[in-house]
Amino acid sequence: MWLHEETGDLLIQSYRATAAEVKDCKEVGSVPGHSTDVPDNETIIRLPAAMLDYLPARREGDRGGEAEHAAPSA
Fold it and tell me: 53 Cβ partners below 8 Å, 6+ apart?
């Protein structure tokens, strides 16, 4: 997992979800107002549960895209 210093985006290397998992994701849905379609420039990845310990904690008042909190590399 890497933190893009300029955008604050997390780049995650992990397993690509199977076709069955993608189908399940589409059935469950997404955040309100967001399509369940996966555009050609995106994919759904599987993040092993053990990797959750490496995700930075979201703090009250944080907004996405801010690079002030670095994530540990994995």
Answer: none
